């Protein structure tokens, strides 16, 4: 809980806000002199005062221009900051929490609009295209950068020079950059990786039963074929002894809720051949879609087979369902974002410290689109899936306040706390986040923390990586891909038929947007994938 002196400081902030006489115009308001700080350097920070559902964890406010101490010197009374973000809880909840805090310590009024994922792209892009300052700050998936970049204010150098920004990993600074300019403010770092329950996979009794049934050793799966074998063996069995069946795999399968990302995870080791350069989604030279080539078809065939390992309703799981299915112990494995892993590590979780992180499953062969044959060799391809990002509109009349809010949102203290709350959707994106000691301080067992940071940091070192498609019209492309995956999962089309149709749609989208326009943007993706 906050101490009485903290409550007094907040009360003082309220008085400042009520008595200030500043003008609402941007230039005059931003020239207000700093007020006395409401926090001492190194103050203890906790979210518990905002509700019992927040952890009692306390961290130190790290000195710097983004800290509680520094931001509380700002006087934004009389000004309104408008923010659009995803629905609560994923990224929407921390947006609202930090908006409330920003109001308390700066005197600003902060209005947050939370929008469901399916509506977010249009709600942001439409006013940007009309040059209307509907929102000062936007939170959205980073893969939309191809659509958003022309309307974003570049991140000023003073923010790029902060210690927190300088600690952002190279991969996620690349994600924030467009045509050599940082236009997105990093607040999250997302990857797909494997999560498993070690209390089951490392149980000698379960290992013996698996060996007897399959003739194979039970372990954390190394390939998608092995993942399927393990998931199938355990689906329908009561491994918890609570009278309820458990299931093998929780996957994001809902057509309009990130199915495309789950499918790309499955496709990555089949399609990202380390010996073939020039694009995974398109042939860079011709811009012909590659999503119906044999590697993608193999992945969709795998995904269709996996249906037998899902929990009831698993064919329509959104991200939230996957988070709570694995995080709550219903399923033994999942492979999407950090959120399910962090959810499983919440203090009240029944599977806390009974899990492990590992690299995405790979394959024993990878398609070579140059030779049009399968190369018989083990292959893995980390997938840097889109993460949440943030940005400031060029049309904003409050750019300084907007960047200060994002600076505060992502300061070291807030990020340290946000990382530990699974539903927030804030995942490691700074080098400091790969310190196992930090996670051990949160009550994680040493082995769990080690598996987590080594898995995530190892992806940064890979030279055979897959990144999301980051081009204008990306929502149309991903929607067409999701439609194809959904048709195959529903049994309406074979995987080949479904992806052939998706490829035809991709070709039409490219023609509508302009082949040269898409090509110029896609080169940035290829440069990341080919590690150039």
TrEMBL record:
Pfam family, one: SBP_bac_8
Taxonomy, superkingdom: Bacteria
Gene3D superfamilies: Periplasmic binding protein-like II
Cited SUPFAM superfamilies: Periplasmic binding protein-like II (SSF53850)
Protein name according to UniProt: ABC transporter substrate-binding protein
Source taxonomy: Bacteria, Bacillati, Actinomycetota, Actinomycetes, Kitasatosporales
């Amino acid at each position: 809980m906050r101490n009485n002196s903290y409550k007094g400081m907040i009360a003082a902030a309220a008085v400042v806000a009520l008595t200030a006489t500043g003008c609402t115009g941007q230039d005059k308001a931003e020239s207000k002199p700093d007020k006395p700080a409401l926090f001492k350097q190194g103050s203890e920070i906790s979210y518990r005062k905002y509700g019992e559902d927040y952890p009692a964890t306390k961290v130190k406010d790290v000195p710097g221009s983004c800290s509680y101490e520094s931001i509380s010197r700002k006087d934004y009374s009389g000004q309104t900051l408008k923010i659009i973000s995803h629905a609560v809880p994923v990224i929407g909840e921390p947006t609202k929490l930090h908006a409330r805090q920003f109001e308390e310590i700066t005197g600003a009024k902060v209005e947050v609009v939370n929008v469901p994922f399916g509506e977010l792209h249009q709600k942001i892009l439409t006013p940007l295209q009309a040059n209307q300052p509907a929102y000062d700050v936007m939170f959205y998936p980073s893969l939309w950068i191809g659509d958003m970049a022309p309307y974003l204010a570049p991140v000023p150098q003073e923010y790029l020079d902060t210690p927190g920004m300088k600690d952002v990993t190279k991969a996620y600074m690349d994600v924030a950059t467009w045509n050599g300019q940082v236009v997105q403010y990093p607040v999250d770092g997302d990857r797909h990786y494997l999560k498993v329950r070690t209390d089951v996979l490392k149980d000698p009794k379960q290992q013996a039963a698996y060996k007897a049934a399959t003739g194979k050793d039970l372990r954390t799966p190394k390939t998608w074929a092995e993942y399927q074998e393990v998931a199938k063996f355990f689906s329908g069995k009561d491994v918890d002894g609570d009278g309820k069946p458990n299931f093998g795999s929780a996957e994001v399968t809902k057509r309009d809720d990130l199915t495309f990302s789950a499918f790309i995870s499955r496709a990555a080791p089949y399609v990202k051949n380390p010996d073939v350069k020039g694009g995974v989604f398109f042939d860079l030279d011709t811009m012909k879609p590659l999503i119906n080539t044999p590697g993608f078809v193999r992945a969709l065939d795998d995904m269709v087979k996996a249906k037998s390992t899902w929990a009831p309703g698993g064919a329509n799981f959104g991200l939230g369902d996957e988070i709570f299915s694995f995080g709550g112990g219903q399923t033994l494995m999942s492979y999407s974002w950090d959120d399910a892993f962090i959810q499983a590590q919440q203090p009240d979780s029944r599977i806390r410290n009974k899990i492990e992180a590992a690299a995405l499953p790979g394959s024993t062969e990878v398609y070579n689109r140059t030779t049009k044959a399968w190369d018989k060799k083990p292959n893995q391809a980390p997938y840097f899936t889109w993460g949440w990002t943030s940005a400031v509109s060029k049309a904003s009349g409050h750019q300084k306040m907007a960047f200060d809010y994002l600076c505060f949102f992502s300061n070291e203290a807030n990020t340290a706390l946000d990382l530990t709350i699974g539903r927030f959707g804030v995942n490691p994106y700074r080098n400091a986040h790969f310190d196992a000691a930090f996670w051990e301080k949160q009550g994680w067992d040493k082995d769990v923390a080690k598996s987590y940071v080594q898995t995530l940091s190892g992806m940064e070192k890979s030279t055979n990586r897959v990144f999301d498609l980051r081009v204008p019209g990306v929502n149309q492309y991903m929607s067409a891909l999701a439609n194809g995956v959904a048709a195959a999962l529903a049994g309406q089309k074979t995987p080949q038929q479904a992806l052939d149709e998706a490829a035809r749609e991709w070709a039409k989208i490219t023609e509508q947007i302009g082949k040269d326009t898409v090509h110029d943007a896609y080169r940035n993706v290829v440069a990341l994938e080919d590690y150039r």
